[in-house]
Design brief:
Blueprint lengths: L21 H7 L4 H12 L2 H9 L2 H14 L4 H7 L1 H18 L3 H9 L1 H31 L5 H13 L7 H13 L3 H8 L4 H9 L9 H14 L2 H14 L6 H27 L13 H12 L1 H34 L13 H17 L7 H28 L1 H4 L6 H25 L1
Helix pairs in contact: 1-2, 3-10, 3-14, 3-15, 3-17, 4-13, 4-15, 4-17, 5-15, 6-14, 6-15, 6-19, 7-8, 8-9, 8-17, 8-18, 8-19, 9-17, 9-18, 11-15, 11-17, 13-21, 14-17, 16-17, 17-18, 19-21
Length: 441
């Protein structure tokens, strides 16, 4: 959907040169055929895959499961699958923008849209990320508490595990560790099979895609939440910065798209599996809209067995763990990029102290906040969703404009069709934001 593969019209406008890395060392090996392609894919997968799998965070896991509890095997399954092209479009633009310009998204916003929108992007992202991080710690602690740990120790252990990633040296090592964590999210596919979902009912959702009747605005709420889970502001900042840190350039755009496409597909498949886990509890849990992670975990024992319940608790912890890493890194990269701090995961803590201070500080804040007695956690989850949708609108508009500009992208700029499709996604997001705010207010 992009034009010819010549270099951008202003090749000198980047602020990062692609570093010599493990990634490029693997690409430089003299291999041919399928063996070469396999090694290239092993080297390249990371930014897109981590972004998409991280999108199924603890809050998303609970929301997908609650959707299944509320509606069973329903039209939400094809709806989730239809979201893959939307997320792929947004994240492909993000990947291409960073690879071609070799410049961070935040810096490009400052350069082309001014200081106001630059600081707006930073400020709103940090606040939104902190709220979302709190939901990740809620999910992680819920997963650990099912093994008998009290809240405070579950919270502390979660914090230590996420912070410990910073001690490892090099982007490559940290990325491989995060990919291993992301692969564990496949546990939801196993749980879905343990619930023995009806294949006929799943097929029926595609042949008779009808919206449930009699539930009124509740359906709208879940539709907005489902779409909102698939599109989050931190995803743009994380993948764009990861592309730069890894050293991906315009020469690797084809493989970058494969990485992003693979992530888009896996994200929706895992989301559907989580919904099927919740569907096993359809009609068995009262007051679904206020249900918490513990109720879902406990409910799975009689419905699908103790193993399914344990695996769901583990999956919930793992989803929050990966998202806590990616969301915190998106904050660190954004702040460091805007203010010119050392900003690479290849740097040690002593070299990039401010970068890691944002990473660790945001995690400590979120972990401490959920221990505050009487904190309205359900309201925070709703506020996070609403704010994420509002923050995403200008971010997405800037992304489409930047990737459509031949001055910025040269011959890698969006085609007319892709530009129109991008703004259609913006229009959809605006409509959903209005629907969500109407529901809240």
């Amino acid at each position: 959907m992009t034009q010819s593969k010549s270099m951008p019209a202003t090749p000198g406008n980047g602020d990062h040169s692609a570093p010599t890395s493990k990634f490029h060392a693997i690409l430089a090996k003299d291999r041919t055929g399928w063996r070469k392609f396999s090694w290239m894919m092993w080297a390249l997968i990371g930014p897109g895959l981590l972004t998409m799998i991280g999108d199924n965070d603890a809050g998303g896991v609970v929301e997908y499961a609650v959707t299944g509890i509320q509606f069973g095997i329903s039209f939400f399954i094809p709806l989730i699958l239809c979201l893959a092209p939307l997320t792929f479009t947004i994240q492909e633009m993000t990947m291409r923008l960073s690879a071609v310009t070799q410049t961070g998204y935040t810096k490009l916003v400052f350069r082309h849209f001014g200081r106001f929108f630059g600081y707006y992007s930073i400020g709103t992202l940090i606040v939104e990320n902190l709220l979302t991080l709190m939901t990740e710690f809620i999910g992680m602690t819920a997963g650990l508490m099912m093994f008998g740990l009290p809240l405070w120790s579950s919270d502390l252990l979660s914090l230590i595990l996420v912070v410990s990633l910073a001690i490892f040296t090099g982007y490559w090592t940290k990325e491989r560790l995060a990919l291993f964590v992301g692969a564990l999210n496949g546990v939801f596919l196993i749980i879905a099979l343990l619930t023995h979902p009806s294949i006929g009912a799943i097929e029926h959702t595609f042949t008779a895609w009808t919206i449930p009747k009699g539930l009124g605005s509740l359906v709208i709420w879940f539709v907005v939440a489902t779409v909102g889970n698939a599109i989050a502001p931190w995803m743009i900042f994380f993948q764009g910065s990861a592309v730069l840190d890894k050293g991906i350039t315009a020469k690797e755009l084809k493989l970058g798209r494969i990485d992003t496409l693979l992530g888009s597909i896996l994200q929706v498949l895992i989301a559907v599996a989580i919904l099927l886990c919740g569907a096993a509890l359809y009609g068995h849990i009262q007051h679904v809209t206020t249900v918490g992670p513990a109720a879902i975990i406990q409910g799975l024992t009689p419905a699908a067995g103790r193993i399914a319940s344990i695996l769901f608790g583990f999956g919930l912890f793992n989803a929050g763990f990966l998202a806590a890493i990616t969301i915190s890194l998106s904050s660190s990269w954004t702040v460091a990029d805007a203010f010119g701090f050392a900003r690479s995961l290849n740097d040690r803590i002593s070299t990039a102290s401010k970068f890691y201070a944002v990473y660790i500080g945001s995690l400590v804040f979120a972990a401490a906040a959920i221990l505050i007695p009487g904190l309205p956690l359900n309201f925070i989850a709703v506020l996070s969703q609403a704010m994420g949708a509002i923050v995403m609108i200008p971010i997405l508009i800037f992304l489409v404009i930047l990737t459509s500009s031949r001055k910025v992208m040269g011959d890698y700029a969006n085609t007319g069709v892709l530009r129109v499709w991008g703004f259609m996604i913006v229009g959809l997001l605006i409509s959903l934001t209005i629907a969500l705010l109407t529901k809240i207010l």
